[in-house]
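Exercise 4. Each item below gives a protein and its sequence. For each, produce the structure-token representation.

Item: HPP family protein (Polluticaenibacter yanchengensis).
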Amino acid sequence: MYKKIVGYNRYIISFVGILLMIILAGAFGNHEIILPEMAALIAGTLIYEEKPWLYKPFHLFILPTITAIAGFLINMLPVVLVVKLIAIIFVMILVLLVFKSRLGPSLATGLLPIITNAHSPAFIVSIIIATLVLYLTIKSLKLDKLASEENAPAASLRISLLYIGIVVLWLFICYELNVENLCAAPPVLVVLFEMIHKPQYPQKMYFKQVAMLTIVASLSVLSLFVFENFIIVAIVNFFIATIVLNIFKLKMPPAYALCILPLVLPHNTVQYLPVSIFAMSVVLYGIIYLLKYKATKNLATA
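Answer:
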């Protein structure tokens, strides 16, 4: 009973934290204050207690801040979108390797200012404040005591290079098809980074993740067009993500980022988000599934 009460409290704290971000964005009249990946970080640390994230809570502050600043500066460069995306992918992976971290959501904070074309300094200020508050919250609740060094493996150079290769190939394909505006949904790339480091990727998990992300994206976009008010949409979408995750019996913090993402995308592209999520997840996760399946099959026949 105690664990259930604590669990509900964590959901409430996470919900309030996400909602506060939306309210502040409305109060200041600046949607760049809305940080979808903060929803994933909050859910991952407070709801799911992701031990790899909790072991070094300072990384929750410093890594998203570094990648967000890098993405913000790269977005200022006078080059085409696909070059910006490739540049930030390389920078973010380098940051993770230097810090010996596998904090996937820090990839999303680097991508966000590019896919949303952020130009306001409020974006940087909000990411610094939000991640600092999260870090202090984890320290005050002593959640970092739940994890140990063995829970926080460093990013692998070989696997990171494979990740870069897959993502860059995908970006070039989208560029050639002239759909690069829809080719870099941060939640999908975060899950890809996490799955590529897993020793196995079962077929059942592949289908569940594709279905879950597509459903969350579709319902989240639908609620935006139905309710229009950002606060109401944020409330509805939080429950959408929670319910869908429980139906699929998945613990995927990026789903909470995905349900907030429609609020920050350009209005002329947001309706295509479900198609983008479906295509990205089918192709990118499919590549990982095939690679893992082949490796497992070769090991079994060795």
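Check: The chain has one domain: 2-148+155-301.
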